[in-house]
Design goal:
81 residues
Length: 81
Amino acid sequence: MRYPTGSVPVKVAARVYGKDPSWVRAGIISGALPIGSATRRGVPVSIDEYKKARSGRCNFYISPKMLYEHTGYLWNGEQDG
């Protein structure tokens, strides 16, 4: 199977799960959602570091393949949720 390149937007993943985007972000950081990763300045983010809002923004990568394997949803590359 061929998967699109790039990261699935958090809004799209939230729609797939029927949850809020913050739920998806927290799930990725805590390891409860095995669909991607979170980094801050190129360094993986722990749940404690994420709670420190003054530390800067986090970047989330959601793998199209991992999302498909976890949910059965095949992302087609759309950018909106």
